[in-house]
TrEMBL record, chain A:
Organism of derivation: Acidianus brierleyi
Presence of keyword Metal-binding: yes
Name of the protein in question: 4Fe-4S ferredoxin-type domain-containing protein
Gene Ontology molecular function: 4 iron, 4 sulfur cluster binding; metal ion binding; oxidoreductase activity
Signal peptide coordinates: none
Stored Pfam families: CCG, Fer4_8
Domain 4Fe-4S ferredoxin-type: 27-56, 95-124
UniProtKB keywords: 4Fe-4S, Electron transport, Iron, Iron-sulfur, Metal-binding, Transport
Record keyword GTP-binding present: no
Gene3D superfamilies: Alpha-helical ferredoxin
TrEMBL record, chain B:
Ranges in a coiled coil: none
Keywords: Membrane, Transmembrane, Transmembrane helix
Taxonomic superkingdom: Archaea
Organism field: Acidianus brierleyi
The keyword Transmembrane helix is annotated on this UniProt entry: yes
Membrane-traversing stretches: 14-38, 91-114, 155-178, 198-216, 228-246
Alphabetical list of InterPro entries matching this protein: NarG-like_sf (IPR036197)
Protein name: Nitrate reductase
Amino acid sequence: MAIAETKVDMEALNKAIDEVFYGQLDSTMLYYFQSCVNCKACEAACPFTPTSLHYSPVNKAEVSRELYRYRFSVWGKTIGRFIGGSKKYLSLEEAETMVDYVWHCTNCGACMFVCPMAIDSGAMIDLLKQVAFKAGMVPKIYRDIADLEISGKYWEIDFFKNSWNSLISKIKDAIGKEVPLDKKGSEVLFYTSIYEALAYPDVLVKVAKILDMLNKDWTFMSKPLGIRPPIGLVIGDKEGAAEVMQRVYSYFTDISPKYVMLTAGGFEYPSLRYTMHETFKVKPKYEVVHVTELLAKWYENKEFEIEPLDETITWHDPCQLGRRGGVFEAPRVLMKALSKKFKELPSHGVNSFCCSRGGGGCGVPSMVENMAKTLGIPVSDDDKKFLDSTLEPLIKAGKIKVNEINKIKAKEVLTGCPVCIESIGFSIDYYHASSKVNHIVDILADRIKVNKK
Amino acid sequence: MQLPFGDYLVGNSLYPLALDLFIPTIVFFFFGASYRVFRYFAVYKKPFIPYATSVMRETSSTEKVKKLVDTFANSSKVGMKRKPVTTAAGLLMHLSLIVIIFLLAQHMVFWAYYIPPYKILFPFAIPESSADGALAFTLATSPYTSTSYPFVHDIWGPLTIILNGQYITYILMILLGIYLGHKFHALAEGLTLRSGDWWFFLLLYIDIILGFLATSHIPNSVVYYDDLLGAHIIVAEVLIATLPFTRGFHMFEFYLGKVREWYFMTYRRGEK
C-alpha cells in the first residue's frame, strides 16, 4: 500500500495518538469505546465487509479501542497490556494497517443503526483518520487537493475559474437574464462547489431554472467557497476544515439568506448543516437544506405540480444526507409524485447500502486521478497504487447495489449526491445493468409545472 | 482435603458458601456499575444544538413511538436478512437465556427470596424438566407439600413439555457452542477478539453446564449435588461481580444505546 512505502515519522505518530486520544473523549465516545460486545452484527451493514472481514466496522474500530483502553481504563493500563487488549502506541506495521483501515470506511453510519448497542464505529475510525493525518500518513493526492482548498488558491487555477464562469454563463442562458450573484438577504442562497460544477453542471443549471420558474428570490455565488468544502473533514484534518468552514460561515452570514440550499447530499451536507455550527458554537439565522427539502416543501405548498413518469424509479438514500443528515421524507414526497411506480430499494432509509465512496474513498479512483492531473498535482506511483486499492471495494459493494436495483427492476435510480451518482453509475456499467442513475433534479426539472397564483 | 474458608470447610459443600457470597457479589456489582456510570458523567459534555429545522422533518408522536420500536428491532431485521444463521442463533440464545434465568422455577425461588415482590411472576414459572411438564399436563398433579405460593400451577399448560429448563439448557449449550465456534473462526481469521469474549462466554458456558449437572443429579449423590449447585451459584456470582467490567454489561447498556440513538436520530433531529 502507498503509505507503507513512505517513511513514517514514528515520533509524530505517537504525538498524534496522544493528542487525538486525550483530546476528544466525551460520554458518547466513551460509550462507543467500552460498550461494544464484539457481536459483529455491524458486518451486515458495512459496504467494505464484502471485500474482507478485516474491514468490518468492529475490526477497524478495534485499533481505536486498544489505544483508548491504555489511556482511559485501569484494565488497559495493567492486565490489558499483557493480554493484547491495549496499546500505548502502534508499531510501524500496525500503523500501516490502521491507514489501510481508515481508507476502507466511508463513515456512512450504517453500522450504528444495525449495531445492537447503537455504536457508531465510523466515529472511532474517524479518530484514527485524524491520527493518520497528524502523522503525515494521508495519501498525498488527497492532501494536495485539500491544501489547495484550504489555501484558497484553487481560484487561481484557470480550469476551475473557467468551469465556474462557464456554469454562470449557462445559467444565464437558461433563465434568459443576468444571474443574481452574492445578493444579500435573498430567500435562497443556491450553494454549490467546484466539484459539482464539474460533475453535473446540467443539474445545477436546472436547479437555477426551477428557482427562476418558481419566481424565488435567490442568489448564486460569484466564486466558489472551495473545491468541495470542507475536504479537510474527510481526510482527518480538523484544523484545515475549520479554516475552510470559517470562510463558508462568513459568506453565509454575510449573505444571510433564509435558506442555504445544497444540491449535494454527500459529506458536505452534515458538515455545513451541523458540524460547522457545532464547531463554532453558533446558532445561525439561516437554515442549510438539501434541494429536495425545499422542493418538497414548495410542492406540498402547491407551488407546482409534477407530471409523472410511467416507469419504475427508485431512490438511493445517500448516507450523509439520510443517515447522517436525517433527510428521508422529502425525497420520497417528490419520488412518489414523480412516478406511481416508485419502489424502495430492498435496503433503504437508515439501512441504505452505501455506494462505498464519499466520506471515505473520495470518489471513483479514475475521477480523483483525472482531477489531480487537471490541477497539476503529480500522481505518484504510491498514489496510483493507493487509488487502485480502492477499486475492489467499489466493485464488491457495487454488486450488492446493482443486485438490489435489478431486483426491483428500476429503470431510473435517482439520488441527491454527486459521488453516489458517480459510483453507482460505475457499478451499473461494470455489471452491465440496464438502469440509469441521475440526480433527482435532472428528471424532475423537466416535469415541473408551475401553478400560477 | 478440606480447606478452611471463614466458617466453612470448603470441600464439604460449596452451597452454603455460595449463598453467603451472594450479598457481597451484589455489593461488588453495584460498586463496579457505579464506577462505570460515574465515568460517563465525568466526561459528559453538553451537546450543542445549532438550530431546529423548519422544513420537511416533522415527525408525529405516533411515528416517533413507531420509530422507537424500529430502533430496537432494526439490528435483528437487517441481521436476519444478511446474516440469518448468526442472527437467529443470537436471538434464540438471548431468549433462552432470559427465560431460564428469570423464569426457571428454581431460579424464581432464589430471586423471590432476595426480592420478595418477584413472587408476582410465579405463575410464569417453567418446570425443571420435560418429565415435570408432561406429568403436570397429563396427571394434573398438585404439590404434595403445602405451599403458600402454588406456583407450580403455571400458565404455560402443555407448553411446558417443551418449555422447560432441561430442553432450554440443551438449546443454550448448543447455541453457546455455536458462539464459541464463531470466536474460534475469528481467531483463525485474525479478527478482533478480546479477553472479555472468552471470559464472559466461558463462564456462562461453565455455569450452564454446572446448573445442568446439578439439576440432573449427575453424578447422583447428595454431596455432589450440593457442590455442583454451590459451584453453579459461585460461578454465576463471579459473572455478576465482574459484569460491569465485561461485555455482560450490555444487558443494561443496550437500552441506553438504543434510546440514545432514537433520541438523536429521530426525536431531536426532527424537532421544530
